[in-house]
Amino acid sequence: xxxxxxxxxxxxxxxxxxxxxxxxxxxxxxxxxxxxxxxxxxxxxxxxxxxxxxxxxxxxxxxxxxxxxxxxxxxxxxxxxxxxxxxxxxxxxxxxxxxxxxxxxxxxxxxxxxxxxxxxxxxxxxxxxxxxxxxxxxxxxxxxxxxxxxxxxxxxxxxxxxxxxxxxxxxxxxxxxxxxxxxxxxxxxxxxxxxxxxxxxxxxxxxxxxxxxxxxxxxxxxxxxxxxxxxxxxxxxxxxxxxxxxxxxxxxxxxxxxxxxxxxxxxxxxxxxxxxxxxxxxxxxxxxxxxxxxxxxxxx
Length: 300
Prior knowledge:
46% helix; 7-stranded parallel beta sheet; TIM Barrel; 7 strands; 10% strand; single chain; globular; alpha/beta
């Protein structure tokens, strides 16, 4: 565990209007032909397919895993990056995915609220890691953050990171609950300095979830950290990204903010299960010249 706390006063103030204006500029880029196909396949390969419902069954998880590694029977497309499930479903997903190369991610730390004590959160994390999770998606304690207990939040992230062992840690800020861009920047910097391998916008359980301005703000926090330390940190916008056009805009923003080194699923993910089908439909359109019906693609 890191013994160096992050001084929250070091985080810069955010010009919200300037942030929105910068983010909107990425929506004007036009991507055509081969570059568009390459971008769509890259977006597909960056998706974490997710099922996080109380009604999840072993059968539903197995179906999602089959889709993750068999996205289309006739098109040459990559697999998604990962399947994300609750800790008690990790072993099921791990077995179902086999040697497909698709990773298993698991939410932990009393997801989505984070309202539990540290012992429970660490046990939750250990349960997922012991079952074979390659990645852990934890939530920060937003209540503690709003109370100004930044060292508490820092230490919690650092201890969960330690419990992850070799699994990579994605730290969910739940940006829709943080209130202001300044708060999101502070939480981003705090999570990065506490040891996050990725920072992630949202649980997908509240609105607003991921937005381009907030994602840009978080990318800029990652960039600033890289310029200072040389250490790369990943980014995962999650929730609300459901169409291929928007995904391509996010990739343009990623490339122009962080550069080519981040243009892989090792460093960028979409938490957006609905996105996969729209990307597949767009790829089919590029290949055949006509849209396929949504009925040709499984919902799970």
